[in-house]
Amino acid sequence: MKILLTGVTGYIGKRLLPALINDGHQVVCCVRDKKRFTPPESMKDKIEVIETDFLDRKSLKNIPADIDGAYYLMHSMSTSNDYESLELLSARNFTEELKRTNVKHVIYLGGIINEKTLSKHLTSRKAVEVELGKGSFNFTSLRAGIIIGSGSASFQIIMDLVEKLPVMIAPKWLNTKCQPIGIRDVISFLSGSFFNPVTYNKDFDIGGPDILSYKEMLLGYARVRGLKRKIYIVPIMTPKLSSYWLYFVTAISFKLASALVSSMKVEVVCRNNNINKLLNITPTCYEEALSRTLLKIEENQVVSSWKDAWISGRFNQNISEFLIVPSHGCLIDTRNKPAADIKKCADKIWRIGGNSGWYYANWLWIIRGHIDKLYGGVGLRRGRRSPDEISAGDAIDFWRVLYADKKEVRLLLYAEMKLPGEAWLEFKLNEGILIQTATFRPKGLLGRLYWYSVYPLHVIVFKGMLKNIAG
Predict the structure, then answer these.
(1) Residue 268's beta-bridge partner residues?
(2) Per-residue pLDDT at 442
(3) Residue 305: its pLDDT value, please?
(4) For residues 394 and 410, what is the distance between their CA atoms, to the nearest angstrom?
(5) Distance from CA of residue 416 to its chain's centroid?
(6) Are the beta carbons of 97 and 106 closer than 8 angstroms?
(7) How far apart are CA 438 and CA 319, in angstroms?
């Protein structure tokens, strides 16, 4: 069948795509920017890529009329203060545009909404579900709570808190109950529901067998990792303080922390598990899901990560708009050096950032990351999804990958740290010469003062980095 897959560059979409292809489907991938979608070569003959923006009805004319079904996996949490109206408009445009297609079944992944008083985030998810249910197609809504998997924001929070804090003074929402589910089971439910008549025009809560408080989840992670941890609950931490607590201790952005904290005060427990029997799926328990996730991380098999979504940083434009590095009105530092070994040099470029560091004066990069965090930036804690693979759109510490071609040996990064201007960092090999270029487009006088004040450090850092990468 021909399936329309929205949110294909997101955490769930990247996992669902290979599952759909393995089931023999032809997949139409909806992306806002083709430049940041790099599917494996083995998939390219089984997919069609179209550029769409569901807030722009004109772009939706690219959707082919002969699709049989669709997955709606989009949400805008923390990308805007007005994300509720944007999500509703996106769902409305999607529903209206599918009227001209042959689509017969649409599946939506939302959040569990079994309390009368919902957070802003969960209220928006419910509104989207209602809007999609108005369509002229069979509709299935799957509702999930905390998803446990390598690269998920929820797992990142759990891992960061437990790994970094032997003793936690935590807010009272850690007593809230939830029903976590492993990412593998989420994909099984999404693929198993497709064109299955028993799921038509119904909604289902999906979750694992364990109902746990967030405190119990943290302690469960500690058991799996063989760590001793103490958690003390205090009633005085407000939602704002809790958001700052997550922001400074974990790798997530403040906007995402705020949205998640508001949802974590709401109990998310499945009403029933009827869908398990209907689809013959037995979800794994929480600690088993943790073990699988940790194994994937150890084996460097993280397929997708929340860090590579726009919500992890401040970059929210199409990559295409920034691929041509400006020169007019810019301050530029260009250096070059012959590469001692071209292959080793290319490998070093492709492993830059994350655990590999920046090859010179890493302590200065760490200080810059802490300063960025203090000013509300992303800091260095995002790391990178894979130690040796890079794709356009990936996050590398406080940079966003704009262009990455290992055959050409060219890597172009855009700065997402807090700056009085815009910055690019480029590495490329040309006839055995490594060319390293830092470009800064200052914003007003403050931007120029910033550049010249840190220029002495740039000279030291960029010179040392070039030398060590070129070998």
Answers:
(1) 178
(2) 94
(3) 66
(4) 15
(5) 15
(6) no
(7) 18
Q: CATH number for the domain including 463?
A: 3.30.530.20
The conformation of residue 240, written as its DSSP 8-state character, comes to H
* 202 and 114 together in one domain: yes
Cβ neighbour number for residue 84 with a 10 Å cutoff? 18
User: Which residues, given as ranges, of the chain have pLDDT below 50?
Assistant: 78, 312
Neighbours of 264 (CB within 10 A): 23
Kindly state whether residues 120 and 158 are assigned to the same domain. yes
Best CA proximity match to 48, nearest among 64, 32, 76, 28: 28
Query: Are 460 and 454 in contact, with CB atoms under 8 Å apart?
Result: no
Tell me how far apart the alpha carbons of residues 346 and 405 are, in angstroms, rounded to a whole number: 10
Cα angle at 377 between 371 and 383, to 5 degrees? 90
Sorted by sequence, the CB contacts under 8 Å of residue 49 that are 6+ apart come out as 28, 29, 31, 34, 37, 39
Transcribe 15-46 into DSSP letters.
HHHHHHHHTT-EEEEEES-GGG----GGGGGG
Query: Nearest 5°: CA angle at 129, between 124 and 133?
Result: 150
What's phi and psi for 318, nearest 5 deg?
Answer: -70, 140
Note the helical H segments in 133-213.
153-164, 183-193
Task: Specify whether 296 is located in the same domain as 393.
Answer: no
Q: Where are the alpha helices (DSSP H) in 117-199?
A: 120-132, 153-164, 183-193
**Helix (H) and strand (E) counts for the chain?**
13, 19
| Strand segments (E) across 341-420 | 395-396, 399-405, 410-415
List the one residue out of 265, 292, 126, 266 whose CA is nearest residue 208: 292
Judgement on whether residues 252 and 341 belong to the same structural domain of the protein: no
**For residues 338 and 433, is the Cβ–Cβ distance under 8 A?**
yes
Q: Which tokens go with 55?
A: 């807030």
Q: Pull the structure tokens for residue 143.
A: 């509702």
Burial of 368 (0-12, 13-18, 19+ CB in 10 A): buried
Q: What is the pLDDT of residues 135-183, one digit of tens each?
A: 899 999 999 989 999 888 888 888 889 998 999 988 888 898 999 999 9
Place of tokens 């545009």: 97
Question: Are 116 and 154 spatial neighbours (Cβ–Cβ below 8 Å)?
Answer: no
Q: Do 23 and 158 have their domain in common?
A: yes
pLDDT digits (tens, 9 = 90+) for 299-313: 766 766 666 655 545
How many separate domains does the chain show? 2
* Domain housing 98: 2-307
